[in-house]
Write the structure tokens for this entry.
Amino acid sequence: MTVAEPTPLQEQITLLELVDRVLHKGVVLTGDIMLSVADVDLVYVGLRVLLTSVATLDRLQAEGAA
Amino acid sequence: MIAAPGTTAWYVYGVVDASASLPPGRLRLVEEGPLAAVAGAVPLSEFGEEALAERLNDRRWLEVHVREHEEVLQRLAAGSTVVPFRFGAIYRQLDDVAAMLQERRADFTAALARVRGRIEVGVKGWADREQVSASLGDAPPQAASGRAYLERRLTERQRVEQVAALLADIAGDAHARLLRHADEGVANRTQPPELTGRAESMILNGAYLVGGDGAELAAEVAALEAEHRGRGVSFETTGPWPPHNFVEPGEGS
């Protein structure tokens, strides 16, 4: 599906797409060990912070390299 | 993957027909009647309850494993009908996986029938609010007096509301039109700009379950794109995806 080498930003968007489906959709089970829905919401909050900080870091590195 | 008992668990990716065949590799089918779960051994040091809670906040770890989960489902979906599980279905024993299949047999059988022969396509709508605003006509005039300033502020506020209402209409209309070319569809919560990293606002985050190759849906996306491009609204498709959005009862429409 992807041909070109993805930029960091595109990687983030793709990860976001994946998180939206893989962590938020699909059959939910109650297993032996199982993620609770609350954990997933926490991941989403955590990921938001991480993605934002990674985006900032990438920009700073790009500016530093320029 | 062979490991001492008690150090590994079974991660389940999804459910397929028992007659499905797996690509060679580390995965195995756990059969139970007409169904089979697709499982792979994972170390408890990473996937145990406490370890997992911690790892989930490690972006690199999460990315690797979320991608791996999706890749397994994509490979399966290429050759079989698959019911995707949410990330993190982990069982200590294969017997537990079989018991889960038995317990949920009716649900999984219905889910397999629901998605059989169909693919999920994502459609996103994006809006450049400034361009949309400009497409509505002249911008409010520059303020010359105090009274004119207040009037201008009022007009600006009305303009923002007009843009929001127009975008809601466009998104609603687009979703309704796309649904006509799909068996089911869902408009999910739009993703905020700090996550998408894009200057445009996301106005539609739709997922559609379509038969065949989804050519009709693609044609409707192209029509929407052509219709709205001039006013700063664009549409894009993602996928095909395994049918993540259409395997839980109550999701989709």
Summary: The longest strand of chain A covers residues 33-34. Strands of chain A lie at 33-34.
